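Tokens for chain A. Residues wanted.
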């Protein structure tokens, strides 16, 4: 397969990315996908079965509004079998076709939403006002006065920054969007820490960068690296290039947060709160770096438990220990 700009240094069998883009880069074919999605959107079905609603050839052609049989048949054949499937009862979307439809829905909506507003809470770092903004499918929570959490690795004042599909904001106010955003990030990080891409299920390659001259300045950026964090990790999917670059503390606390949410039988999406997440990161995490070989030991303490996680230079978890605060006090 010829390598492409979408997947450099990647060899995929079957349908290549360039071929997929070429197939989908046609108005009639996208309309076929839209019509089939609309036909089945109101029905519940198991993706693993053939119980989805189908459309006959004639019904589909009529809805797509193409009178030329040869033309319609050609475009239909281009979508099969990757994006649509023909069954004994008619045509339906394949798993990939459903994914395309869901992606279009997720990004649908205006590029600009009136989301620039002050939140009820104050900045957990300096007490100043905090505002939420939304631009280019990114949700950002920023302090209006201080430098924020990330130093020069993020726009000034940034406390939280994440991609957020416009459709997900249709029924949420800024406070609810922030809570959902924290939850989504924790789950994204959990996927990455297990070496799985949440976008395409591909393999994750990871590396760490250490500031050898790092100065701990009480949450203020180090003069040498420009951030408060000594160790940053890059985690990137080998297949689709989905990636995150974050301090190792955030990767680790995100994993702990997701574990805590899973352990919570009530599954309260509003817990932990934004303030609790920042407090955990700023005041309850201690990081130690050793070399030959490189090891990053992160100790996290919350109100109920203490966690000690050791990572190598590929972000593999070498050891993971958890003890309750009662055990710590007793010992």
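Reply:
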């Amino acid at each position: 397969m010829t390598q492409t700009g979408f997947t450099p240094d990647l060899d995929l069998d079957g349908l290549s990315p360039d071929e997929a883009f070429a197939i989908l880069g046609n108005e009639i074919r996208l309309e076929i996908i839209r019509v089939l999605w609309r036909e089945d959107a109101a029905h519940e079905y198991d993706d693993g079965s053939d119980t989805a609603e189908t459309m006959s050839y004639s019904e589909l052609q009529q809805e797509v509004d193409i009178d030329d049989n040869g033309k319609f048949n050609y475009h239909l054949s281009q979508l099969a079998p990757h994006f649509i499937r023909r069954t004994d009862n008619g045509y339906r979307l394949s798993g990939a076709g459903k994914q395309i439809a869901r992606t279009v829905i997720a990004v649908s909506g205006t590029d600009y939403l009136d989301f620039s507003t002050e939140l009820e809470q104050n900045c957990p770092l300096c007490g100043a006002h905090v505002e939420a903004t939304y631009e280019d499918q990114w949700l950002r929570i920023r302090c209006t006065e201080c430098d924020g959490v990330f130093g020069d690795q993020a726009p000034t004042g940034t406390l939280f920054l994440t991609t957020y599909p416009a459709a997900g904001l249709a029924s949420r106010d800024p406070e609810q969007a922030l809570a959902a955003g924290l939850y989504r990030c924790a789950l994204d990080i959990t996927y990455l820490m297990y070496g799985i891409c949440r976008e395409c299920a591909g393999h994750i390659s990871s590396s760490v960068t250490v500031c050898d001259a790092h100065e701990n300045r009480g949450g203020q950026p180090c003069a040498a690296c420009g951030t408060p964090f000594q160790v940053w990790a890059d985690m990137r999917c080998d297949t689709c290039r989905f990636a995150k670059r974050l301090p190792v503390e955030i990767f680790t606390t995100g994993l702990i947060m997701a574990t805590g949410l899973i352990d919570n039988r009530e599954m309260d999406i509003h817990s932990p709160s934004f303030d609790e997440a920042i407090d955990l990161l700023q005041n309850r995490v201690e990081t130690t770096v050793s070399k030959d070989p490189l090891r990053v030991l992160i100790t996290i303490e919350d109100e109920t438990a203490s966690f000690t996680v050791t990572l190598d230079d590929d972000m593999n978890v070498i050891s993971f220990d958890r003890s309750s605060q009662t055990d710590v006090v007793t010992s």
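DSSP finds nine helices and 13 strands in the chain. The first strand starts at residue 84 and ends at 87.
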